[in-house]
Amino acid sequence: MKDFLKFTLASIVGWFIAGIACVLIGILTLAGFVASVSSETETKVKENSVYVLELDGTVVERFASSPVDKYLGDTQSYIGLDDLLASIRKAKENDRIKGIYVKAGSLACAPATMQALHDALADFKESGKFILAYGDSYQQNTYYIASVADRIIVHPQGSISWSGLRLQTLFLKGLLDKVGVEMQVFRVGSYKAAVEPFVATEMSDANREQIQAYLTEVWQQMVGDVAASRSLTADELNRQADACMEMQPAETYVNNGLADTLLYKDQVLDLLVQQMGVEDEDELETLYTNDMMGVQRNVPKDMSGNIVAVYYASGEIDNHTDGSYQQEGIHAESVISDLRRLRKDENVKAVVLRVNSPGGSAFASEQIWREVTLLKAEKPVVVSMGDFAASGGYYISCAADWIVAEPITLTGSIGIFGMVPNASKLINQTLGVRIETVKTNRLSDMGDLSRPWTDEEKALMQQMVNRGYELFTRRCADGRRLPQDSILAIAEGRVWTGIQAKRLKLVDQLGGIEVAIDEAVKRSGVDAYSIVSYPSSRNMLDRLMEVGTDRYISAHLSAPFEEYYHSFSLLRQLKEADRLQARLPFELTVR
Questions:
Q1: What is the rounded CA–CA span in Å between residue 499 and residue 47?
Q2: Which ranges in 256-361 belong to alpha helices (H)?
Q3: pTM for the full model?
């Protein structure tokens, strides 16, 4: 018995020591992995280099990849717009990089992102360097981006998609009726259409009007830019769109001027070697976006300590604390804290607030607006609008000294709504559940999902929405230095493109983030400065800890149903959302 206890104890101790050893080895291995992955070495650019710009994946405002994504099955490829624009800019400045080779793939991005990439390549061409573009199959957006190339090459059996734009809305009222849920809606503005999918079975005339105007403006911009690059007329391009170019033989693209030649991949490589002026492909040096991120810009190091801060506010606006790394969006508490630090930092001489948001919580937007106002009192604040700066996104922008938007940025949507489900039919009839309530006051159970709201409760909620709308329009009027009546005339939730918004004085200037930075520098009054991006990128350990479940589900659910996912997403978030929402009624992704 004594020996049995001795051996048992020895075994337990042995297993305990072995467990500790495994943990230590795991930690050391993880640390080594982190060190090996996170070692950011400078990319040395060799002579006769070409930047291979792969237009593939999903473009987001900023993206820090996690090395464990592939092990979690997250094969969705994300690319940061900031990294792409910086790479194109560095390729223009570096004398050893002779040109850009655009490889057209499957790219998902919103119109303003598409235009920013198009314009960046157009700016690159001013250096006198070449751009070659090749694609087995060009999507409409990749063709638009690549249209500035010196030569557009298509596979002999490839295709170019060119057929115009569409936007579809999924109406859920029929489904909600079947399950016994009624959405009780409170809003201001006939154009505030974010609630339509839940209370109607078809698009309202007002919503159809604003969507048609938006799509028409975006399409005219695309057609105009391609026409200028390809020496075609708008009428010719619209005729080709009506013929659905994707279904036409490849020879058609050369005949009608959309492409220059048809080549196989090996022939494209030969052409690239010839373009670079080298003997063979072995002398050709290629750099991809990941390589370009390690290339240093040709700018002298600033020793003044002056900083022009670029703060990225991207995603939906909410009041949640960002306690989990996979949760992306504009979290009011985090943004307020960050902007406060920038306000108090004496080295920061100006701030560019990069807004890419369809809106969200009206209360969270008001909180951020307050901090932007305080920041503006201390130093210049310039807003750069990305794909969307609408509703709550415009709310947090309107207090800035100067607003810059892309021509096809989606902005405006100045309006407020509230939406509360009435699930009494689902609970009482479908499920056969009965709920009894005991209360002390008449409205103690206001918000109860098991019954419809009373007229008194509806009136109180509508008054709350009206007050929110009055405050929103007043904030816009004060920020834009316009009479409130002028804002009310163009509000009611209506969306505008950047071009339209400039005419309406909702924005000051058209252009990308570089234009906004130049304006901020001018207003700061400093000659020597450094540009620093905020919030700082997460370190590698943070990214390793990011399991990415939410991002995985969202990406893979939204990919096949991207035109309809917005409505499902809003319905999913309804439980946690604030009562008052300042949110865009739709989103457009161009492929």
A1: 42
A2: 265-276, 289-292, 332-344
A3: 0.85
Which region, left, alpha or beta, applies to residue 305 given φ > 0 means left and ψ of -120 to 50 means alpha? left
The tens digit of pLDDT for each residue in 514-549 reads: 999 999 999 999 999 999 999 986 554 454 444 444
Which of 372, 383, 374 is closest to 332 using CA atoms?
Answer: 372
Q: Could you read off the pLDDT of 372-411 as tens digits, one per residue?
A: 999 999 999 999 999 999 999 999 999 999 999 999 999 9
Letter for the amino acid at 555? A
247 contact partners, CB below 8 Å, separation of at least 6 = 159
* Helix/strand/coil for 22: helix
Distance from C-alpha of 19 to C-alpha of 249, rounded to nearest angstrom: 64
In 10 A of CB 371, how many CB atoms? 20
Q: List, as one string, the DSSP characters of 519-572.
A: HHHHHHT-SS-EEEEESPPPPHHHHHH---HHHHHHHHHHTTTTTTHHHHHHHH
Residue showing tokens 């207090």 = 399
Q: What region does 218 belong to: left with phi over 0, alpha with psi -120 to 50, or beta?
A: alpha
Residue 406 CB coordination number (10 Å): 30
Cis-peptide, bond into residue 300, ω within 30° of zero: no
Structure tokens at 472: 């929103």
The whole-number pLDDT of residue 591 equals 65
Q: Which H, E and C letters describe 186-242, residue by residue? A: EECCCCCHHHHHHHCCCCCHHHHHHHHHHHHHHHHHHHHHHHHHHCCCHHHHHHHHH
What are the backbone dihedrals phi and psi of residue 404, each rounded to the nearest 5 degrees, phi first? Answer: -115, 130
Contact 362, 392 (CB under 8 A): yes
